[in-house]
Specification:
This protein is of the alpha/beta class. The chain has a single domain (3-244), classed as Metallo-dependent phosphatases (Purple Acid Phosphatase, chain A, domain 2, 4-Layer Sandwich), CATH 3.60.21.10. It is built from five helices and twelve strands. The protein has helices at 19-32, 49-59, 79-86, 119-135, 164-173; strands spanning 3-7, 36-40, 66-69, 92-96, 101-105, 139-143, 178-181, 188-192, 195-199, 215-221, 225-232, 237-244.
Length: 250
């Protein structure tokens, strides 16, 4: 059954970026052998080309297949162009037939703006890919930087997707199984119908809220249940959510 790692918000280039945190996280990832690692944006702090060059040194150390989407920080200073040169596609898919899953990555960033938008073109792309995954009986995972549902304990809501309602409707109609995001540096899980909306914390930055620690999520998909685990930088673990798997085997 699929075992997924979800990391986000590296913020390489920031004063608050700590190299030891990302190195330790990568070591842990390589020890637990996820089937895929999904990275939901803000891999850089300013979108500078040199920051992307530094990021790729870390990403190349991850042994599992990875898919990366940009965040709002990555779209600064023409960072969208640097992303395409170094990381490659800003949105696309990663299909793993062996484990029966498909990751649909979306670019929710807007150049030099903090708020997010998916837009009609990518929405149409997402809907088609969800339909294809359904026809192939694949587990459907959406990955984007900006959250679609507001995240608790993050203060006044300013940066939710500007087209969140339309995207949410498409996700419900397309029966997305998991929707992964970052941006707020606050791990959380919302359940809506049979979809889990999972937000990751920051994996390697000290831009933290309250007493939270840098962290990443792992998602264990079994025939009977799905379990989402928070993996903290101090080595401790916490179950964020565990719920019945009603998707596989339909």
């Amino acid at each position: 059954m699929p075992f997924i790692a979800h990391i986000s918000d590296l913020h390489v280039g920031s004063f608050n970026f700590k190299e030891e945190l990302i190195i330790n996280a990568i070591d842990e990832l390589n020890n637990i052998h996820p089937d895929v690692t999904i990275i939901t944006g803000d891999i850089t702090e300013n979108g500078y080309y040199l920051e992307f060059q530094e990021v790729i040194r870390y990403l190349d150390q991850i042994k599992s297949p990875i898919i990366v989407v940009p965040g709002n920080h990555d779209a600064r200073h023409v960072g969208n162009e640097s992303f395409e040169v170094i990381i490659k596609k800003r949105y696309g898919t990663l299909k793993d037939k062996k484990h029966g899953l498909k990751v649909i990555g979306l670019d929710s960033s807007e150049p030099d703006l903090d708020y997010g938008r998916v837009g009609r073109s990518q929405q149409n792309f997402m809907e088609k890919e969800l339909k294809k995954a359904d026809e192939e009986n694949l587990y459907k995972i959406i990955a984007l930087h900006h959250h679609i549902i507001p995240v608790p304990k993050t203060g006044r809501e300013r940066n939710v997707l500007s087209d969140a309602g339309d995207i949410l409707l498409s996700l419900m109609k397309g029966r997305a199984d998991l929707v992964l995001s970052g941006h707020k540096h606050m791990p959380h899980v919302w359940m809506m119908e049979n979809s889990a909306f999972i937000t990751a914390g920051t994996v390697s930055s000290l831009k933290l809220r309250g007493k939270t620690l840098s962290s990443f999520n792992t998602i264990n998909i079994e025939e009977e249940f799905i379990e989402i685990i928070l993996n903290r930088a101090d080595g401790t673990h916490k179950c964020l959510a565990k719920y019945e798997n009603t998707c596989l085997g339909d």
